[in-house]
Structures are given as structure tokens and as C-alpha cells.
Write a structure and sequence with these properties.
By secondary structure, the protein is of the alpha+beta class. It has two domains: 260 residues, Rossmann fold (3-Layer(aba) Sandwich), CATH 3.40.50; 94 residues. The protein contains eleven helices and 24 strands.
């Protein structure tokens, strides 16, 4: 009889644990909820059990489905806080304290987005001054999966302080500090990235199945891929398309966000033409999965890197930058150009402050509709006049600036129909650049900053934003056809 009672007690304890109210780790103390739009709240409970959510004096109620899944959407609220969010069933409850209403930004990409504040220029000083209670940091631990999961194994919210920020994304921190200071709004950062990764690892299998280069791999991985990602041989995201989407990103969807910041592309540079398709595919995929419209998506163009070359030539990194710029054709997108901030011998530029500042400029225009100059000069048109070429630009801001003692612009190359590029001299004439073509017979094409490391570029607008690298030709590049 005693054994029967003990077994019954153990059964009841097990049942209560299994039946406990569950919510993903993105819901926790210190979180930021997105102001100004409906807020999805979701989790698990007993099948068909009623779930109550209370926030700012309003009560919401939803019934779990037959599998115990539930979701509701709270009303839109203005910025403010701190508040308390409570969730309960007849058997269990959760209470989240110090909740702020503000703007939530996702930080995605590879190592340059992951790069810790402590490892940047002036990082130590920035850490000491990082007492920002209205900036909140959410960090997702590394995880892989080839199928949807309910939650990430490791994640936490924390209030930004010298103790919590030193290992956090430097780009994300500098961006948040600028936006929070200038707009006086709480900022939440969802830090979800993994160094050295390719964009297809961050794209859903459903989206990748629409691309012929990945259809077969995705299908094979779904049927034959590993289920033990603790094995070091398997724990390599680039081997498994969609593995980071399901392992790290999808569990936080559809947590309401203001927009996304993306710093990635280095690992896809050898397939830059393909990136023209799979980068916008990833953006469209995220927007579709989040189901909150064309939210702002801003990225960092690749910096200058590797040894500078004496003569103009082909470059896979230049082609990747071109693919990034082409993606600006999607609505509500923006790009931070940092062609002047790279380091020849280090793929991780230490000046992350400038990156965050330029992303913040783009966000002010695209996400907040502020009247700011958010882009450097971009190519508009060229006009060939005898032995000169005139280049016109958009986004000149208050005017073009050539940072040179004698006023000569650098980084321009011109070619004739033979496709052989030569450096040319140029100068500013108002808001145009005039290039002297000299002995180049019948010039047909212009390239600017078209190199892995165009380390002498010096064309800006007066707002201090560098001109975007470009080419006027459509000649086949060195990454064409690479898969």
C-alpha cells in the first residue's frame, strides 16, 4: 500500500511538472516589449486550459489548443515603464518584472556583429560609461537544429551596465546608445548571431527550397541530417542550411520588433552573384515569418580588407558589396557603408563606433522617418564628353567633399571596350566628379572603390558619409556561377 501511495505521489508530481505553464526565454524580467504595435505573447499549458495575461491594467484570455500551445496578441501601448506582465492558469503563474515599452532591434550576422565591446577601439572607456538602464540586452546562446523547436536552450535578458555589456555586440551597443539618447526611448537588443556563418544557415528550409542551388541540400538534410549537434563534427552551421534559423532565430519569432540590423557577408563572398538572390530571399523570409509587414532591415556593407593592389582588377569582396547594394531594391532597407573603416590585415575592424553611428543614421530615416542624411553619395549616371567623364550622384547631402590636399579624387578606374581598367585622375565640380580619361580610347565603363581594399578612397558628402562603391559595367565577375 505504501508503494502504491508513493507511486501515486510521484505520478502527480511528474504530471504537475509536465503540465507547468511554459513560456520561451525571450519573455523574462528586464525585457523590452515593442511599443506602438500589437504584442504577441505565447507559450504552453495543459491542453484546452485557459491562460490569462495581465498587463497595465488590461486582462487578456486565450485557451490552449489540443497540444497545449497558446498565443494571443495584446494591444499596442506607448513607450514607458517599468511595468509588470503576469501570466497564469488555474495551476501555475509567471510574473515578469521591470518590463519596458520601447523599440526592439534584432542583431544578426557573423563575427563582426558578434564582436565584443571590450575588443574595440576605446572599448574599455565605453564599458566604464555603459550605465544605461533603458537599454536592455537579450543574448541567445549558440544552438543548431534542422527542425522547429519551442525555445532556445540558453538566453537571458539583462539591464545594460559595465558588468553586462563588455562581451555584448559592440555594433549593437553603439547603435542602441545613439538611438536611445537621441530619441529618449527604451531599446531592447536581441543578440542572435554566430561568427563565420553563411546567410543560408539563417534562412528557413521553406524559403531555401525555392532556390535551385539549395533545394537538394535542404531536402537531404531534412531526411538524413544529424540529430546530435553536440558532436563537434556536426556542430558546424555552414554544413547545414537553415540550422541557425531553427536553432536560434525561429524560437523568438514572432516577438514583436522594430527592425533588424545585419552584419554578414564575409563568408558568402566567394559566391557573391548567388548572394544577390539569397540575401534578399532571407530578408523576405524573415518578414514573412514574423508576419508584421516589411519591418526595417538595415545592414553593414563589407569593409575594406586584405592588401591593397597597385592596379585595378577583379574582387570577390567588391562583388559582394555590389550584391548588398542591389538588395536596397527591397522596401524599408538601408545600408551603412564602411569602405573607409576596414583594416588590411584584420577582417574585424576595431572601429565599431562608426558602424553603430552609421546604422543609427539609417534607422532614423528608414525606421523613424526623420529628416536626416543617412547615406553617402551613390552613383546616378555618367556622361562621356570627349576625354572626360562626368559622374552624377544621389545622396550628396549638403554637397560632395573630396578629402585630398590638392582636391584630387581617388579610387576611380576607367576601361574601354577591351575591359582593361586604368586608374584615372579626377576632381570635384560642384556635386559632380569629373574624370580625365587621357589616352583611354573610347572609354565605356567606370568603377569606383572596386577592390578588396580600396584604401585610398576619399569621396564623401559634407555629412561625413563615404561614397558607395560602384561600377557602371555589367561584365561577368569572378564569382559568377559559383555555388
Amino acid at each position: 500500500m505504501r508503494k502504491i501511495c508513493l507511486l501515486a505521489a510521484l505520478y502527480l508530481l511528474f504530471f504537475q511538472v509536465e503540465a507547468a505553464l511554459k513560456m520561451p526565454r525571450v519573455f523574462a524580467d528586464h525585457m523590452v516589449l515593442q511599443r506602438g504595435q500589437e504584442i504577441p505573447v505565447w507559450g504552453e499549458a495543459d491542453p484546452r486550459q485557459w491562460v490569462n495575461v495581465n498587463f497595465q491594467g488590461k486582462k487578456y484570455r486565450v485557451r490552449a489548443d489540443r497540444e497545449g500551445k497558446w498565443m494571443l496578441k495584446m494591444d499596442a501601448y506607448p513607450q514607458g515603464g517599468p511595468y509588470t506582465l503576469s501570466v497564469d492558469t488555474k495551476d501555475d503563474s509567471k510574473v515578469f518584472e521591470n518590463v519596458m515599452m520601447g523599440d526592439v532591434w534584432l542583431l544578426g550576422g557573423q563575427s563582426n556583429m558578434e564582436w565584443a565591446l571590450k575588443n574595440t577601439n576605446n572599448g574599455e572607456d565605453s564599458i566604464k560609461a555603459a550605465d544605461h538602464p533603458n537599454i536592455r540586452l537579450f543574448e541567445v546562446g549558440r544552438n543548431l537544429s534542422l527542425e522547429p523547436i519551442d525555445d532556445v536552450p540558453e538566453a537571458r535578458w539583462s539591464v545594460c551596465s559595465p558588468e553586462t555589456v563588455e562581451n555584448f555586440s559592440a555594433v549593437g551597443y553603439y547603435f542602441a546608445r545613439r538611438i536611445q539618447t537621441d530619441l529618449d526611448v527604451p531599446i531592447g537588443l536581441l543578440d542572435i548571431n554566430w561568427g563565420g556563418t553563411v546567410s543560408e544557415a539563417w534562412t528557413s528550409a521553406e524559403a531555401l527550397m525555392s532556390h535551385e542551388d539549395f533545394r537538394e541540400r535542404v531536402a537531404t538534410n531534412k531526411t538524413e541530417g544529424p540529430r546530435d549537434f553536440s558532436d563537434p563534427e556536426n556542430r558546424k552551421p555552414n554544413l547545414w542550411p537553415s540550422s541557425l534559423y531553427y536553432g536560434m532565430l525561429e524560437p523568438v519569432i514572432p516577438f514583436a520588433i522594430k527592425g533588424a540590423l545585419w552584419y554578414q557577408g564575409e563568408s558568402n563572398a566567394g559566391r557573391s552573384y548567388q548572394y544577390r538572390e539569397i540575401f534578399p530571399l532571407m530578408i523576405r523570409d524573415w518578414r514573412e515569418q514574423w508576419d508584421q509587414g516589411d519591418f526595417p532591415f538595415l545592414w553593414v556593407q563589407l569593409a575594406n580588407f586584405r592588401a591593397a593592389k597597385e592596379e585595378p582588377g577583379d574582387s570577390d569582396w567588391a562583388e559582394l558589396r555590389e550584391a548588398q547594394s542591389m538588395t536596397l531594391s527591397l522596401p524599408n532597407t538601408g545600408q551603412a557603408v564602411i569602405i573607409d573603416k576596414g583594416e588590411a590585415d584584420d577582417i574585424h575592424p576595431r572601429d565599431k563606433w562608426t558602424v553603430g553611428e552609421r546604422l543609427a543614421r539609417a534607422a532614423k530615416k528608414i525606421a523613424y522617418d526623420m529628416d536626416v542624411v543617412y547615406s553617402g553619395p551613390t552613383f546616378r549616371s555618367m556622361e562621356i564628353q570627349d576625354d572626360q567623364i562626368r559622374i552624377s550622384f544621389d545622396h550628396v547631402g549638403s554637397g560632395l567633399v573630396v578629402k585630398d590636399k590638392y582636391g584630387y579624387v581617388k579610387g576611380f578606374a576607367v576601361a574601354g571596350a577591351d575591359k582593361k581598367f586604368q586608374w584615372v585622375k579626377g576632381y570635384r565640380d560642384g556635386n559632380q566628379i569629373v574624370l580625365e580619361t587621357g589616352d583611354i580610347a573610347d572609354p565605356v565603363a567606370v568603377r569606383y572603390a572596386w577592390a578588396d581594399n580600396p584604401d585610398d578612397v576619399n569621396l564623401y558628402n559634407k555629412e561625413g558619409l563615404p561614397a558607395n562603391p560602384f561600377r557602371t559595367d555589367e561584365w561577368q565577375g569572378i564569382t559568377y556561377g559559383k555555388k
